[in-house]
Structures are given as structure tokens and as C-alpha cells.
Write a structure and sequence with these properties.
Length: 603
Amino acid sequence: MLKTNMSVIGWVQEVALLTKPDRIIWCDGSSAEMNALLDQLVQTGTITKLDEKLRPNSYLARTNPTDVARVESRTFICSANEADAGPTNNWSDPGEMKTKLKRLFDGSMRGRTMYVVPFSMGPIDSKLARYGVEITDSPYVVVSMHRMTRVSSAVLDKITAGANWVPALHSVGAPLVTTSEKQLQDTSWPCNDEKYIAHFPDTSEIWSFGSGYGGNALLGKKCMALRIGSVLANKEGWLAEHMLLIALTSPLGKKYHILAAFPSACGKTNMAMMNPTLAGWKVETLGDDIAWIAPDSSGKLRAINPEAGFFGVAPGTSVKTNAHALHTIAANTIFTNVALTDEGDVWWEGMTKTKPEHLINWLGHDWTPDSNEDAAHPNARFTVDATECPVLSNDWDHPEGVAVDAIIFGGRRTTNVPLVAESRSWAHGVLYGAMLSSEQTAAAEGTVGSLRRDPFAMLPFCGYNMADYWQHWLDVGASLKASSLPKIFQVNWFKKDSAGEFLWPGFGDNIRVLDWVVNRLEDKVQAADSPIGWLPELYDLQTKGLEITESAMQELVAVDPNRWLTEVSLTEDFFETFGTKLPAQLSQELAEVKSRLEHNRAV
Ligand code: GTP
Ligand code: SPV
Ligand code: MN
């Protein structure tokens, strides 16, 4: 990593020579800067101002229809050693990738302004914080970085004082003037058909080309906080995870901090802002997407949310499912790819029971309920400061983070995976993470609904060999006292009945599962032994007030040994792809599950 402010200046000059922008602006994170950029984006047609009364200080952006989600097939881990990227990542030789990218970046900012955005992931004075500087030619990216990270000139002071930093280079790849000096017409959402999201873990660098959307372009998020972050975490003894973070207070006033890893669009934002349906419980938000976790001096794991805002999925968000999210985005929000109402407000599928009679949809087309196009894109999102959240925890930006009591893994699984189970040990919990699989959502390209393995919900985000990452998790557990380790659980809100209906009501009713989790933390209830871990006794799950049948509840906690043996066998095949890197302890954990299942089937 580079050191001192001079190194930032040198890098900016080097990038400017290559990308040839018309001008360079150093961003300071001020609200004056934010407001000027928003005005400019309105003038260029990238964003539209929403009605000031209905949605104060809020905007709608419509992207190019080809630039709507993360592009995993164009995401590369460019480690010197191919084995360090591992079988779950696209690998490219760092030298070859840079040669290729230099050709693409050459002149890519012609006619545009280059913004230099110093940002901190984590509270700027926290020991857990890490600094970055993003160079981008997209003002939409700059305003989004303002919301999602701590953009501040103070970061440059930290760098000058010797702090390490991550150079993160981004261009939408749409120069305004060709090399032959022929004027090209600008569009409201410039981007390039050719996209590269490249990471250089050996030098902690990020180069992103061609996309202006989300995790492809807001480089503090997935690129730095997860892919580069996970590599740093492995080296430095901490964990960089795709997890929400909440404070949960029980009716008796005891407070717990819970981390949960669910794949993209599988419920993190919803759980992070849960409105519990059981009386006396309180959920407070600390983070909805990323957590950095490190042991403190007493050997307890503590977590921070390195982000400063939420980039949340809009479709499905309603007063019924996530009232706190709706409150969060009542003002001061940038919406992307949602529909525009005739009154100048926003709408998306699932927001209200009755659909508006007329909208302009995310493609800019007239839309009515009979239309065969979506109103909002399924991966439409809102970008908003964390401080807008009505249930934000006071500790959300505590520089030391919060002590972690439980870790939960969950995916979108129509069958097999029970509502909740508790692991037997840290290592068995690591197996829960490693076995995580989920039906694909619209958050990335690919076929929605097809089952894919998504270990630790980190498949698209782990910047090094996934098997080494599992070993790192095992090592972190082994290095700490077992009694101080969080307990590890798995959940599944998405099991369906034979008619294809969700068996579990989900959302605020997920508190009923957290109630059981807390009872287990407090040793208040016994659990049933099963081959895949500890399961709740049905009488220990509070279902009062739910319209749910006894047989549905039984189905929710059922573990079918035959189906699970198939699950194990698929996992064995998956684990084999890691060859000798697969941690022996993990195969051992899997073998134990298998033998318990075989025994269970026999009796
Ligand atoms: P990323 O931001 O992509 O990492 O996603 P996320 O994990 O934060 O997902 P989010 O909370 O935005 O949930 C996405 C989708 O899952 C929405 O359509 C929700 O309505 C749905 N969802 C969330 N929680 C539940 C639940 O408990 N039950 C059911 N059935 N659906 C849920
Ligand atoms: C995800 O896909 O997991 C997200 C959205 O949180 S993005 O930032 O676009 O990756
Ligand atoms: Mn995410």
C-alpha cells in the first residue's frame, strides 16, 4: 500500500495523464458539494427531482437498461498467484489485466470531470477504519459515495500522517470526445458495454470500468469493504463479512448484538430494520450489508458497520414488510430504477396493495397495471444516510464497535433447510457458513430462482481463495476462548409448502426465531438433537398470534435425512473443487454430519 498525501497526488496525476479528463475536482464531503452535484445531475438529466412535499430533497435516477446490477462474470481477482483467487473467482494475471485496462482507461474521461473522493470505511478515528480514495468520472457515484461512506478531506490528513489507503479507480467508460476530436453526444446514464471490475489484492488496488451501478461503481462497498477487505482481514486477523448488524433488546431489557449473513436480496435490510411482532422486543439497526469484525484485547469479537448509508432493495418494501425502511426513505433519498408516479413520487412492486393507475416505469415508459413491463426493476434500490433510520442504534458509529453475541447464516431455500438450527460448535457453525446455498435473486446477472452455493453469502465478494477463507474463520475461532465466542445459527425464512406458498410469515415475525436464539444464548430452553444441529422444540417457538397450522410448523423444523444426504453429497462435490486447500477440519465436520444422517436414516 502507498503512503502519504504526496502518493495520492502522484496517483491522481498519473490517472489524469491516462484518462485525460477536462478538469479535476477534489471532493471534501461537504453538503455544499453534495447539493451542487445534485443540481448538476438534474440539469444533465441523470436524476429527476421528486415532488418536494411528497418526498423532500429526493431524486430518481434511471440507468441504462444494460447497467442494472452487479456483473459477476466481469468481476476479477487479479492475484499474482492464480491459486490465491481460488475456484470461485474469475482470475486474471495482474500485469495482463492492467495492460488491458490501461488501453480502456486511456482517454476514457475525455470531456468529463474527474472527481477525487477521499473516503473512510468505518468511523474515521476508529482503529478498525480503513481509508480509500476513489477517482471517478461519474457525479452519480460521487453523490452515492457521500451517502454510503464517510467522504472527507480529513481522510487525506490521515493518509498524510502515514495511514495506508486503497486507490480505487472508476470510469463509466464513455468519453465525450473521441480521439479524432469528434464530439460525442452525452447520455443521461453513460456506461460501456465492456465492463471490468478488477481487484489487485497483492497491492490493494481497485480498477472498475464501464458500469455506473451499485457495487460495480461505489468502490468502497463490495470492492473495498469486502473483496480487498477480506484479503486484509485474512492477513491482519479480522473478518470482513456480508452481514447485517443489529442490537436486540429482550423484554427483560437484556441487549444482544447479532450478525447475520444472507446472500444478496435475501433479507439483510429487512432484518436489520425489523419491527418485531412480539411485545417487549426491540431491534435497533447498526448495519444492513457489511460488517467488519475483530477480536478486542479481552478476546471478544467486536463488530462495526464500515458503511455510512443503506443501498437497499426497493421492490417488496412496504409498510407491512419494513415500515422502518419506508420511514428511512421518506426524505433525502436517491432512488434508482423505481417507477415515478403522476404526483412526482416513487412506486415499486409490493409497495402498496393497489397499484397506481398510471406510472412512468424504470425504463421511462408509460405504465398501467395491465402493462407487461415491470414498474420498478427487481434490483431497483434506494440510497440514503444511515442517520435517516428511525431505529438506528446509538452505537452504530461507535469507534470500538459492539461485542457480538450470535452469528446467523441464512439463504433463500424452498426446501430442506429448517426455520432455525443451532450449530454444535464454532467449527460446525463454519460448516453452516460454508454450506450456505440460495436461490438466485436479481441482485446480480443470472437466472433468478436457480439454486447456487453462496458460502457465507460471500461467493461474489471473497477476494481470495474461499478455502483459505474458511481456514481463516476456523483459525479465528481457535485463537479465542470458546466461552467468549458468539454462538452460530442458521435460519431459512423462505421454505415453501407444496402449493408454493411461504410456510413462514417472515419479516417482523422473524422475532419469534430470534426469541428462541436468545433463549438458547441464555440457556433457558433445551433443544432437540438432530444430525444437522440443535433444533427448536415446537413448544419453545412462540407462535401465539400467528395463523399457522401445527403441520406447517412441523414442516418448518423438519429435517429429512435422505434429502440432507443429497445435500451433503453435493457439498462433498463442491468441497472437492478446492483440492488440498480444503481445511481438514471442515471435511471432518461434514463427515460427522453425514454419519449422523446415515445413523438417523437407519433407525
Ligand atoms: P442486498 O442489499 O442485495 O445485499 O440484499 P438484502 O439481503 O439486504 O435483502 P433485502 O432485505 O433487501 O431483501 C430482499 C427481498 O427479500 C425483498 O423482496 C424482501 O421482501 C424479501 N424478504 C426479506 N425478508 C423476508 C422474509 O422474512 N420473508 C420473505 N418471504 N421475504 C423476505
Ligand atoms: C448486493 O448485491 O449484495 C448489494 C448491492 O448489496 S450492490 O452494492 O450493488 O452489490
Ligand atoms: Mn449486499
